[in-house]
Amino acid sequence: MAPVPALFWLALSGHYDPLLLTLGAVSVVVVCWLIRRSGLAHHGLTLPFALRLPRYCLWLSGQVFITACVVVRKVWSPRMDLRPVVEPTPAADLSERSLVVYANSITLTPGTLSLAVHDDSIEVHSLKAADIDALDEGAMLSRVRRTEARR
């Protein structure tokens, strides 16, 4: 499972310096080793989830690009119209793994940040209330649910 997020980060970052690649690979190996050693790796990767994850990552990449353009336009605008908000967004009925994917997806999307994860919601900081409203509409949440192995 570790190569998938590492490759996703690599594709989004565009940093291909040999030193950074080496340090990144070493850090992935160390983190995986620490997780296994600590016993936190109790949620194994299922085949259905692994098969659906690349499609989700592709969709998320598009969302990251779109929201990055929106945030850049807002920040560079002479009349910066940003009103940061902190509100919960629903995240009920997700497995622990999917809850982590959802919270990290929110954080990866420019302009939003997951602050706290609860059983039925995620507390989100956003540069504008419309981003929270978009999360509440549930497009990202429904895509995360589709990556889950259970039907």
Automatic annotation (TrEMBL):
UniProt keyword annotations, A-Z: Cell membrane, Membrane, Transmembrane, Transmembrane helix
One GO molecular function term?
monoatomic cation transmembrane transporter activity
- InterPro entries recorded: Cation_antiport_E
- Give GO cellular component annotations, separated by semicolons: plasma membrane
**Family matches, as Pfam families:** MNHE
Membrane topology note = Multi-pass membrane protein
**Localization of this protein:** Cell membrane
Report the principal subcellular site.
membrane
Can you tell me where the transmembrane regions are? 18-35
Which family does the record assign?
A: Belongs to the CPA3 antiporters (TC 2.A.63) subunit E family.
Alphabetical list of PANTHER family matching this protein:
NA(+)/H(+) ANTIPORTER SUBUNIT E1, NA(+)_H(+) ANTIPORTER SUBUNIT E1
Q: What is this protein called?
A: Cation transporter
Question: What is the native source organism of this protein?
Answer: Streptomyces abyssalis
